[in-house]
Amino acid sequence: MQQNEHKRLSNHFAELKHSTASATIEQVSRELAKMNRTDISLIALRKILRATELYGRKLASAAGLTAVQFRVLQIVSENAMMTPKDISKQMGVSQATITSLIDKLEKQGMVCRTKSEADRRQINITLTPRGVETVDTAPDALQQRYVRQFEALQEWEQAQLISSLERIAAMLDAAELDVAPVLDSGDFRNTH
């Protein structure tokens, strides 16, 4: 692959050299560097997408869950019990989406719904023993690794990354998509 890339860049260099007699070596070099940076950026994006895809497969194989379903389990685990409304707020998605996720997790025996003793209209979500075991034994979440490393960065580095990632999202016409803060390459509403 590197030979093909080198050949492509060499051919492009030759075309630029012959097509623009007044072009300087510096201009051609800058053009080649831009192309190379574009390829490097696309490769980095692809690596991110591939890592989330591979983690999703690993999690599905080990725990029978999607990354989004697993994140719901983690959130409930961190708080002992939560209402669907609180889960939806924390994940940044609609209550209808959370209800669907909880339905699926309940069918798998991971969570249970109980009426609140303080307010009988309120439903609390808690983990079952199987849900607790799943959270404890699942592969290290890709998202958790990212969070640990991101939070270890200096504030200016965090701001720079956020700005760059938001810019990339805008470049891909994805800035306005309604998504949860979950690393998952699949369709959010396709939750098994």
What does this structure look like?
The protein is mainly alpha-helical and 192 residues long. The protein folds into two domains: 1-34; 37-172, Winged helix-like DNA-binding domain superfamily/Winged helix DNA-binding domain (Arc Repressor Mutant, subunit A), CATH 1.10.10. The protein is built from eight helices and three strands; from the N terminus they run H-H-H-E-H-H-E-E-H-H-H. Strands 1-3-2 form a three-stranded antiparallel sheet. A hairpin with a 7-residue loop joins strand 2 and strand 3. Helix 1 runs antiparallel to helix 2 (25-63) and helix 4 (84-91) crosses helix 5 (95-107). The longest helix is centred in the N-terminal third of the chain and has 39 residues, at 25-63. The protein is elongated, with a radius of gyration of 23 Å. Keywords: DNA-binding.
Short synopsis of the structure:
With 192 residues, the chain is mainly α.
Secondary-structure blueprint of this entry?
Elements: H1 2-19, H2 25-63, H3 67-79, E1 81-82, H4 84-91, H5 95-107, E2 111-115, E3 123-127, H6 129-137, H7 142-151, H8 155-171
Antiparallel strand pairs: 1-3, 2-3
InterPro entries: AsnC-type_HTH_dom (IPR000485), HTH_MarR-typ (IPR000835), MarR/SlyA-like (IPR039422), WH-like_DNA-bd_sf (IPR036388), WH_DNA-bd_sf (IPR036390)
Pfam family, one: MarR
Protein name: DNA-binding transcriptional regulator, MarR family
